[in-house]
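hey m, so remember when u said the tokens were messed up on ur end? i reran from scratch. heres the input so u can diff it against urs
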Amino acid sequence: MAAAEPKTKIKPKLNVKEPSKFKVIYVNDEVTTMEFVVDSLVLIFGYDDAAAFDVTTQIHEVGSAVVAVLPYEIAEQKGVEVTLLAREAGFPLAVKIEPDA
């Protein structure tokens, strides 16, 4: 007769913290077109046209705007996607990622 296998009790971790959030910020420049900014907000962040236009206007008038608040990895990935699209289109659009306080 084989010896009984020891039973291991696994306790679920109940105090799992939600990942920290980070702001994705577009910074205005004098070269990137408003049309490109609107299109990138729709394509990358899922904005509808009206909301994308409103945020683009804010970026243009104020100098920058938070376009999303996401977990770090997603914020970073979307920032890279926008930057690559901008460079491919010949625009210097700057995208910053900052902790959401």
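this time it looks ok to me. Residues 25 and 68 are 7 Å apart (CA to CA). if urs says something different then somethings off w ur setup not the seq
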